[in-house]
Amino acid sequence: MRRLLQFLGHRLYTTWSTFWFVLPFVVTYPAQWLLAQRPAWYRHLHTINRGWSIFAIRMWGMPVEVIRKKPLPAGQPCVYVANHSSYIDIPLLFKAIPGFLNIVGKSGLAKVPLWGPLFGRAYITVNRDSAVSRGRSIVQARKSLEAGRSVVIFPEGTISPKPGEEMVPFKEGAFQLAIAAGVPIVPITMPLNHRFMPDVSGTLRVRYSPLRVVIHEPIPTKTLTLADVTALKDQAYAIIASEFRPEAAGIPEVSSWRLTDAAAQAAPKAQSSDPVQDAVAADGKAELSLPNS
């Protein structure tokens, strides 16, 4: 019975999360569609997207810790590079990074019904299997920086198969771009996103989990040349990985009331030894600490 209640609780939380993510988009869709018609209005479209992201995260009830190691350069566009572990990455970055952002996302995002065309207009999409598309995205990102609009890039190019534990080797485009434009690289670590919404093929898996964003000290690039790309890439990789939490590595196990007896006996032990869940309990919200989804 206990496992059944936990399973139903998880389903209820997943439904709640989905509802509060979709509702703001539905309500603001007419305004978003209008603002997507002219580039001069994209700034306002991004403001709606930021508000949507912040609202949804608040309604999900997750505590979000944002740590800024150093102040960001005032009036200076930057290239933000972040690890990629979840579909919650973009909304969380919209919440954590101030200002009018541009973001490089996979071309498939532009094919999502209703929302996709808006994303494709206001932000940069890239087919990572196409050299032409990759080149075009870098040109667009360079123009964005020249216009004073910071750019967010996931240098892994895809969601890591070992989130929170090991990143895919970084591609060089973001670092070449920053050096060519003479703007700082700002590494960002999101070590817990995969605990809330892991990338699981064919299903939406959501579980309550605290989130954390670490915005590291900007790395200047004005004195660097393209010969320094590899060293800059490796430096950013090490900085981002330094904030990973070993106890939170990997995709959470699926939760089901149909567990075998052996799994049922092991489940309480695994749950009580989960430091991430312990952190939720310490925050006074243990009753919302759902089982692995």
Descriptive notes:
- This protein has helices at 2-35, 42-60, 89-96, 115-122, 131-146, 173-181, 193-196, 229-241, 261-272, 275-282, and strands spanning 64-68, 79-82, 101-106, 124-126, 150-153, 185-189, 211-215.
- Strands 1-7-6-2-5-3-4 form a seven-stranded mixed beta sheet, sandwiched between helices.
- Mean pLDDT is 83; it is low at 258-293.
- It contains ten helices and seven strands.
- The longest helix is centred in the N-terminal third of the chain and has 34 residues, at 2-35.
- By secondary structure, the chain is an alpha/beta fold.
- It starts with a helix and ends in an 11-residue tail after the last helix.
Summarize the structure.
The protein is of the alpha/beta class and 293 residues long. Helix content is 45%, strand content 11%. The longest helix has 34 residues.
List the helices and strands and how they pair.
Layout: H1 2-35, H2 42-60, E1 64-68, E2 79-82, H3 89-96, E3 101-106, H4 115-122, E4 124-126, H5 131-146, E5 150-153, H6 173-181, E6 185-189, H7 193-196, E7 211-215, H8 229-241, H9 261-272, H10 275-282
Helix pairs in contact: 1-2, 2-3, 5-6
